[in-house]
Amino acid sequence: MKDRGLAWLALAALVCADGAAWFQILTAGPPRAAAISFLDVGQGDASLLILPGGAKILTDAGPDAAVVAALEVALPSGARYIDLAVVTHPELDHFNGFNHILEKYEIGAFIVNGRDHPGSRQWAELVAKIEARRAPLITLGAGDGVRHGANRIDILSPGPQFVGSSELNDTGLVQKILTPDFSALLTADTGFNVEEYLRERYDLAADILKVGHHGSKYSSSAAFLRAARPEVAVISSGARNTYGHPARETLARLSAADIPVLRTDQMGTVTLRRVGGKLKAFTVK
């Protein structure tokens, strides 16, 4: 495909010294600053990371076809290839948009947490589409990651403590993104229990925090926010959603921690990148 602009190589069996599995993207292209866009997909999550050289990593895709229109704006003109898709966990508001994306885009490989969603017609459809396109479907968890040149994504959770949980939100893939331009912490739909686990085991400091579970009152504890210390927090939620997201309690904790908040329900798609050494936000409603 002429619009790929890169070659990718899935190294699911590449074992590092610490025993972690890694997915590696190899690319050739003009250098540029990294950017991350939190897409306006209504009540759901979808974030697009574009790395120097043009590699594109899409984490989650929202609940429906809204993600397709958001991608048309966020991706470079004419782009029809996404190198890597990450499905944090098999809940509709995180994965179903991929069913619509695959009708218009090619995706090089999928990363999942290894959990199934029995009884979900949409999940079965997505798995069938991935298999029909022969895209690698790679299961990663805590200690694994993704590398691309000087950039990497560390998977912090789920480990054995959470991957088998009856609460699917506990199983979400938590990612710490590290680029020369910024760091970002993507927390899926995890809540206080996973946050405590993360806080005890990792350096969570990040420039950008994707607030857990659309700003649920059971996510983003005061202790977790102190550990992350982000320059900015982004909440992905739908306007006038029936869940009351983001919760007043969560917004109050963010305010008390003096963390600026950007919201897709109010601002539309939010893109963050370094400009002149400063983290800048650009919005499209």
TrEMBL record:
CDD domains found in the cross-reference section: ComA-like_MBL-fold
Source organism of this protein record: Candidatus Liptonbacteria bacterium RIFCSPHIGHO2_01_FULL_57_28
Any Pfam family: Lactamase_B
Domain named Metallo-beta-lactamase: residues: 43-239
Name the record gives this protein: Metallo-beta-lactamase domain-containing protein
Taxonomic lineage of the native organism: Bacteria, Candidatus Liptoniibacteriota
InterPro entries: ComA-like_MBL, Competence_DNA_uptake, Metallo-B-lactamas, RibonucZ/Hydroxyglut_hydro
